[in-house]
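Q: Convert this sequence to structure tokens.
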Amino acid sequence: MSVRLSLLATFLLTIACIGCGSDSPFDYVDAKGAVTYEDGSKIPVGGIELRFYAMNPPEAGGAKPRPAIAHTDAEGKFDLVTSYKYGDGLIPGKHRVAIMEAVGEDKKPLIPKDYSNPRQTPLVVDTAELPFQIKVPKP
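A:
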């Protein structure tokens, strides 16, 4: 019985040391910035969700990066972008930015509808130009 227990312990220790492939195959850079209207005024709601979609991600053995997510504060600023692990940032390069449904207290949209669609959004940012200054037209 002791041999079986020893083998089981060795097996479990080996599995724990190897892990389950929890490391991302991509490199990340810290990203932060702000979202405002084109005239520089703030969007009158905090907590807007931004999603970043890598446009030309590096090859990583068939792996594809997840869209990154950030949330703005009441001033439209964001400083924690999460791709794989909390606050890890963005894959270097260009990203399409979709601003998920932002509505005011009266339930009217605060940004044009196309800006929430990852395939139609005209917003593109490049990690070479940090911090981001994302500008959107008023609806």
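The chain has one domain: 27-136.
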